[in-house]
Amino acid sequence: MKVNVVRRYNNSNYCIGDLYVDGVWISNTIEDTDRGWHNGMSDAWIRNNKVYAKSAIPVGTYNLTLNVVSPKFAQKAYYKKFCGGRLPRILNVPGFDGILMHRGKDEKSSAGCVILGYNTIKGQVTNSQQAFEKFYKILDEANKKGEKITIEITRTYKF
After folding, report:
1. Residues 12, 28: contact at Cβ < 8 Å?
2. Whole-angstrom Cα distance, residue 143 to residue 145?
3. Is the terminal CB of the chain with fewer CB neighbours within 10 Å at N or C?
4. Number of helical H runs and strand E runs in the chain
């Protein structure tokens, strides 16, 4: 299974994108601002230059898993009940650890993670829980079948 996040708009606070699974649009995304990084850059350079909770992960292709329980989110009632704290986790991102895909409202919900929802309000996403559950159910089916899940993050704008 291939997941794509196509970043379409970026400013100094956040970036907005579209989320696809195997070419089918699922929802919008909101992340921290895209600083123009890519996954070919060194882990050390990114760690030294990132602004905590204000930097989107580098564009590139990564593995995505549901097989790790988030210590933080497993304590939250919704995630504990819905998915046992096993949120979609993006693996081996240079300069970042624990990058998840989850619900939220804006870039303040992100801290590097990818927030799902529908960009019906400038600078925010709405109906995030609906988007998260829709996406999660698709991933969970693939995961139960043992399918490898990858995520490719790209951008349509230039740096």
Report:
1. no
2. 5
3. C
4. 3, 9
What are the backbone angles phi and psi of residue 123, rounded to the nearest 5°?
80, 10
- pTM to 2 decimals? 0.96
Residue 20 burial by Cβ neighbours in a 10 Å radius (0-12, 13-18, 19+): middle
Q: Say if CB 15 and CB 5 are below 8 A apart.
A: no
Tens digit of pLDDT for each residue in 30-82? 999 999 999 999 999 999 999 999 999 999 999 999 999 999 999 999 999 99
* CA–CA gap between residue 48 and residue 11 (Å, rounded): 21
Q: What is the pLDDT of residue 23?
A: 98
Token duo for residue 109: 């919900």
Q: Are 50 and 95 in contact (CB under 8 A)?
A: yes
What are the tens digits of pLDDT across the range 119-144?
A: 999 999 999 999 999 999 999 999 99
